[in-house]
Write a structure and sequence with these properties.
Six copies of one chain form a homohexamer.
Chain A (H helix, E strand, L loop, with lengths): L2 H20 L2 H12 L8 H14 L3 H13 L4 H15 L4 H27 L13 H13 L1
Helix pairs in contact in A: 3-4, 3-5, 4-6
Chain lengths: 151, 151, 151, 151, 151, 151
Amino acid sequence: MAGKLTVFHAFRSKMNEKLLSKGNLQLKRFFNLDSQVYSDGALPTRTKELMGLVASAVLRCDDCITYHLIRCAEEGVTDEEFFETFNVILIVGGSITIPHLRRAVETLEEIRAQENRAASRKRRNGETGKQGKGEGRKGRVEEWEKRRKEK
Amino acid sequence: MAGKLTVFHAFRSKMNEKLLSKGNLQLKRFFNLDSQVYSDGALPTRTKELMGLVASAVLRCDDCITYHLIRCAEEGVTDEEFFETFNVILIVGGSITIPHLRRAVETLEEIRAQENRAASRKRRNGETGKQGKGEGRKGRVEEWEKRRKEK
Amino acid sequence: MAGKLTVFHAFRSKMNEKLLSKGNLQLKRFFNLDSQVYSDGALPTRTKELMGLVASAVLRCDDCITYHLIRCAEEGVTDEEFFETFNVILIVGGSITIPHLRRAVETLEEIRAQENRAASRKRRNGETGKQGKGEGRKGRVEEWEKRRKEK
Amino acid sequence: MAGKLTVFHAFRSKMNEKLLSKGNLQLKRFFNLDSQVYSDGALPTRTKELMGLVASAVLRCDDCITYHLIRCAEEGVTDEEFFETFNVILIVGGSITIPHLRRAVETLEEIRAQENRAASRKRRNGETGKQGKGEGRKGRVEEWEKRRKEK
Amino acid sequence: MAGKLTVFHAFRSKMNEKLLSKGNLQLKRFFNLDSQVYSDGALPTRTKELMGLVASAVLRCDDCITYHLIRCAEEGVTDEEFFETFNVILIVGGSITIPHLRRAVETLEEIRAQENRAASRKRRNGETGKQGKGEGRKGRVEEWEKRRKEK
Amino acid sequence: MAGKLTVFHAFRSKMNEKLLSKGNLQLKRFFNLDSQVYSDGALPTRTKELMGLVASAVLRCDDCITYHLIRCAEEGVTDEEFFETFNVILIVGGSITIPHLRRAVETLEEIRAQENRAASRKRRNGETGKQGKGEGRKGRVEEWEKRRKEK
């Protein structure tokens, strides 16, 4: 089942590279800007990636949904948080978003399966392996929240 | 300038009432659901209202943007946070969202003016008046964050 | 309150005329086609106008909604039918359609007020005046349904 | 050729089940509401499913189109009625809907093939087999129309 | 009638200024990029502004349509060219774009009226005044076409 | 790799034929109109096909993008011009269009590969073979530009 994610990553990298190598300066600038806006600021990357997920889903773009699901999972978004996000998507965007949510759930399962395989690998290699489902960046987020409050 | 917000609230309440009084059970259920999805859960209301703002803006609905700007401000979203949200909207949704962002900035100014008037009133009445720009619900959010971490 | 409908009709006629007088043959053909597709066929005009209303609402175009509300009312669509249609719109298109439904309810009230004034006028003039709320074309529709079954 | 429909049904059921088992109460409520709005009321299910088809097509969601094509066919919508509906879709939504209409025609062919196989099976089994192309629920609709007029 | 354009310009400048003064670096970069992509390159500004008009119209944003109508007129787009562009918009985007085209025709009339007033003023001041309807930048475009062919 | 284009053409022709053979007069008229609006007029076909590409991309329809990429290439649009067009699409439509641009670049590569194979074939057959990348209709366009200026 990991194939879908692998295919997504492979095609995305290959074609982004082509877009950027053939594209002019303005296209490069747009791509730069596209990664800058999700960086930590007054709002943490985690919240911005969730926003990216919501925007992608109500605009109904499967590839964009897949991308932000992956990024959100890296930012430690839990299944419970994902499903609450799906509710916001569903209520704002309507039943027309349901087919995208079905595919999102499938993608999410694949992401979790990958995370689990990675965690097993780490455990076998004697590493801590404590990073379970969607808890990857939790420490980093709490760090950020602390910093923000101190401001 | 406070007129725009007042007109928005007046029309919204009047017509929602008519929709609900004339509408059937299913319409009422949709409206109920619509407020439930933004309530505190795994994700705080604040984040969900920001998601609502992003969804409204990329789908380009001025009234929905106004509504979520008001709600976000009540949840203590700061100007800096709003402008980072506008960046996500702009990059995902493109320049076609700019006219909506212009109107959003105008609405935001009006919201802040109202907050300031309310704060002055409180100060004159000997109340604490400490609640400045976008800090309304901050205590409540920190409370929520603490509870979440304890889980 | 009748002003909104009057303004709508006036602007619509004036600008359609300009579009058609300045526009080329292809624009005229599109406009012709646009009225042909709603004519009675295997499906009655009434159903097609309801379809037009749904399409306009999920695509969120207030002027198109107003136009199809007027046409549907002429085809005898009742308030109960309108509100069931609003439910379909709401569930497919999501809460982003709510501001349009608010304005639709306002427009519908204005349409009914006009119908009532017309009915009063008729009664005063000794006419039958039996045509009440949204029952204008009912006879015609039943006629059509009968014809369809006989086929 | 029946594969496309079978795949659609299989994926849809599997993922809906997952959405509902993992999703929270609000997601379940949305799904309930989603089936309620198409039930017989002032407007018959048949008309509402046609509305669902139009909404899905102008919002350009292939899976939603497939779903409503299937449901409309179950409600006895004939080819002639489908093609008139496609006209409304095409004129409101523009040429951007054409690729979806191409796929819709392909799906419709598959649906009719299934209906024919089911009808043949019934005939072979000595059943009435009178239910031909898109006439499945005709009796039920007439029943409903009669009831509505009696009101 | 010139009021509509004046109001558009005034609000646009005022709010863009606010967006840029309050906005962060990324918002400024987006705005820069937004003007860069329409500059002369392999394709002339004129063609790109027409593209901007088409994109704005099928995405149905009145303010964006107004902006690109103004820019296209400055680039010397003629009425005949505008109406052929409206045909492309209408066929791709469907009848849902018609209300926007009605308003576009109204805006175009206002633009032409302004051009005529400017031309009269020039003539009165003894200037050449040869720049009539939509011919403003024609020399510049031919210049560009010549350069492109020489490449 | 040429398979994607071949599959596209095969499915498109087959289903258009079915749409037109089963569809009624109005559907045929829409299809006629759809080809008429791209014909040479005050604006050349080339510019109109580029407009069609932009409209398809901001409305995010892969099949429509593929179709207009093919037509633009036939009209002699160069890679540099395509990438400037992609910039306009990207800035107006936002990052949500990126997955479509990725697929567009892939399609464009396939189109160029086909052009190259056709050119090689011609050279082998002793034909001029001068028609390289995207220069197919260049003579015709210059012809048209000359005619337009003479008007």
